Amino acid sequence: MESTFSAEYQTMRQADGSLLISYRCKGYHAPSFMGYIAILLLPALFYLVLTALCLYAAPIIGIIMLGLFIWYVSFIVRGKSQTLTVISQEGIAWSNKRLPFRDISRFGITRITTSHIQSAYIYAESQGREIIITPHIPMSLANAICEEIQREAIFT
Q1: Which pLDDT tens digit goes with each residue over 101-138?
Q2: Domains and CATH numbers, the chain
Q3: Cβ neighbours of residue 22 under 8 Å, at least 6 residues apart?
């Protein structure tokens, strides 16, 4: 039987031996997302009223405005693609940042729970500091990616 479940992330071994981990970071996993919604609600309603008026007065412009609104909302829901690279014998690289394995004492996950959402992020402890590697992501995704990083760090 074939599995119908898909992973929330993908791994790819690159030609240089490094492991590329790709995943999607959705904005609504951040603890402050409800605050953003509250701030953007009034401008969004104003934009929709303006779009409705344009649909009545100039249908082509109204359709374009409605399409832009739908695209923007789908962009928020779909999320932003993120990657991190575990480089063999060297360290980890993400978002134009690099951290060598010799400076890392351990990897960990911090869970953030608010009244509306539960999220987590992966960090590396280096010289007594927690260096955040991923943005807020679902707890299950954070566990899976952290296991991949630790497996690759031990393997190399």
Answers
A1: 888 889 999 988 876 677 888 999 988 899 999 988 88
A2: 9-26+80-155 (2.30.29), 34-77 (no CATH)
A3: 9, 10, 11, 12, 81, 82, 83
Cβ-count burial of 90 within 10 angstroms (0-12 exposed, 13-18 middle, 19+ buried)?
middle
The CA-based diameter of the chain, rounded to the nearest angstrom, is: 65
CA dist 102 and 92 (Å) reads 11
The pairing of strands 9-13 and 19-25 is antiparallel
With tokens 């899976």, the residue in question is 144
> What b/e string do you get for 99-136 counting C-beta neighbours within 10 Å, with b at 16 or more?
bebeebeebbbeeeeeeebebbbbbbeeeeeeeebbbb
User: Are the C-beta atoms of residues 145 and 23 closer than 8 Å to each other?
Assistant: yes
pLDDT of residue 30: 62
> What residues contact 54, with CB distance under 8 A and at least 6 apart?
61, 62, 65
Cα separation, 137 vs 121, whole angstroms: 6
Whole-number Å distance between alpha carbons of 40 and 49:
14
CB 90 within 8 A of CB 104: no
